[in-house]
Amino acid sequence: MLERIKNQTFSIKSLEDWKAKAEQSLKGKKLESLQSTTYETIVLKPLYTAEDEQPVSEFPGAADFRRGIDLLGYNTNEWKVAQQISYQTADELKQKLDDSVKKGQTAISFAVTKEVAANFSELLGDTTKNYPFAINSKWLQTELLNSLTNLSNNGTQLTGYIANDPMALFAEMGAAPEKALQIWENDIRQADNQFPHLRTILIDTTIYHNGGANAVQELAIAAATGVFYLEKLGESGMELEKALSKMIFQFSIGSNFFMELAKLRAARIMWNRITELYGVEESVRGMQISAATSRFTKTIYDPEVNLLRAANEAFAAVLGGVQYLHVEPFDELTGSSPFSERIARNMQLILKEEALLQKVVDPAGGSWYVEALTNELAEKAWAFFQEIDTKGGILEGLQSNWLQKEIAKVFSKKNLDIETRKQSIIGTNVYARLDETVSYETNVAKKENSKIVAIPQRRLAEPYEKLRRKAKKLAEQTGLAPTVGMLCLGDLKQYKARLDFIRGFLAAGGVKTAESGPLFSLENAKEFISTINSSFVCLCGPNHQYESIGHELLSSLKTEFPTHSFFLAGLPDKENQRRWLTEGIHQFIHVNSNCYQTLLAILEEWEVTADETQKA
């Protein structure tokens, strides 16, 4: 028996055998139904095989650099834990910085204010001797670098980056201040003389990411911006290799794990191709990358879920091969706490010390799926980069508003998928918690008049968060929470599935349900509606109940409650849809409904009713 088990073999199956078995399990559907198309118009297959294998460099640290810029990966050059420290005063910043480096922070990172910029060197003390910088200086680069002059005089060697990206700032603020680029060039040159090991040129795609751009657009914009700066500095006489040594790229890492991982790999491929065309040596063609988990994907409600989102994004960033990483605290949108900041920092430390990712060289290398995705992403991004070039480059693309419109098209698709719940945001448009209390303020940055149209900085969850605020405000004004009465037809087991669906659907906008329990008579239905203090009622039950008693019930209720709005849970066939609408159904609520628009209409009508009641 044992011998027979040892000699047991499995028959060899071909790809065609797998396809046949897969289609059998799909019960008549074609295998193509398992394919999906990303926002980058990349078609993802259900299975990748050796036929999809892509030629890659044997080792990291060599062109095309998709596998990283260091031969031994993080074994020799660990990524820097560059958590952006939050603070209110300069003294608080100094205290938190000292505390953070004792607890695992390995780079100096924070948002710069005028107060800090003016006293930067005094604030840092001896910290600069042991840790590199990871600072986006934005419009305060001149002040920041000037305040560090005394450090250069005493021989301190600054490393890391204190850099800004004028193009991204133009796109964010909708303004291109006069002589801004000239001042920027002067800062780069002055800093090179004083701090030769400090990077001062940032290519920041965060603005475009938060505007809704897809990975293809982010990569192309990064490449176009990098080329713009190379040309600009070259015109002023700076050597190409010198300019390259001053550059660092900033990416936000979104929720599509493999796409974001491939995005970082593709970025290095593109930059290698560009610098190779410029004729520089391979040794200076590697791309330095600073990454941060995405704010675009985060939510204000159910903020603990942001822990999982950030962990997923941080993992993708590390596997993608970044040099600096910031993980946003889960409650950053409403004001982070020492606890959330510690958790965010410890995510990186766990990836290093417990997941041991600093010990593995290019863990994603050789995956058929990742390599195929990386190549396709790089080629599509290269094509869009060329399109930007035909429009006159990154600056012309922004000034003509062409680039903003291209990004807006992608955002519209993402937003529609969120509104219709084709894409889920846990705790926001699905599985929302109605008992949650959140207080926060929204600030809209003032835009200056300019030829450049500002790219709005968005988050996917914002439309639903506005609905929740509206529902809360109405409840406070009227003393009644927006509610939809549920007429449950039949037994519990017959209507429960649709009732659960409607509960979740309405909760996404802060709308509650008042449930009748099993109903079998018109009189009970009338009695229930009279007690719920709501003019919104939804019929909820199985299809056979709709057909047996639903039509008669609706007709009587419309006569009794002519000003009420009646919904139907589910979507009948087209012929029955016409009949229901004729009889007075206001709207069908089903899996393909636009959840956001439906909830917005309910809340706006509730608001009108509340105003009329108050006036009366």
Compact summary:
By secondary structure, the chain is α/β, with parallel strands linked by helices. 49% of the residues lie in helices and 11% in strands. The protein folds into 2 domains: 60-397, Methylmalonyl-CoA mutase (TIM Barrel, Alpha-Beta Barrel); 465-615, Cobalamin-binding domain (Rossmann fold, 3-Layer(aba) Sandwich).
Describe this structure in words.
Helices cover 49% and strands 11% of the residues. The protein is an alpha/beta fold and 616 residues long. It has two domains: 60-397, Methylmalonyl-CoA mutase (TIM Barrel, Alpha-Beta Barrel), CATH 3.20.20.240; 465-615, 3-Layer(aba) Sandwich (Rossmann fold). A seven-stranded parallel β-sheet has the order 3-9-8-7-6-5-4. It has a five-stranded parallel β-sheet with strand order 11-10-12-13-14, sandwiched between helices. A two-stranded antiparallel sheet has the order 1-2. Strand 10 (483-489), helix 20 and strand 11 (512-519) form a beta-alpha-beta unit. Helix 13 runs parallel beside helix 14.
Q: Could you say which structural class the secondary elements and strand pairing correspond to?
A: alpha/beta
Tally of structural domains? 2
The biggest beta sheet is recorded as: 7 strands, parallel
**CATH homologous superfamily annotation of the largest domain:** Methylmalonyl-CoA mutase
Tally of alpha and pi helices:
24
Reading off the top of the CATH hierarchy, the class of the largest domain is best stated as Alpha Beta
Shape: globular
Gyration radius, rounded: 29 Å
Which stretches are low in confidence, meaning pLDDT under 50 for 5 or more residues running? none
CATH architecture of the largest domain: Alpha-Beta Barrel
Question: What portion of residues is helical?
Answer: 40-55%
Distance between the termini: 89 Å
Q: According to CATH, what is the topology of the largest domain?
A: TIM Barrel
Query: Within the largest sheet, what's the order of strands?
Result: 3-9-8-7-6-5-4
**How many strand elements?**
14
Rounded mean pLDDT is 92
Which range does the strand content fall in?
Answer: 5-15%
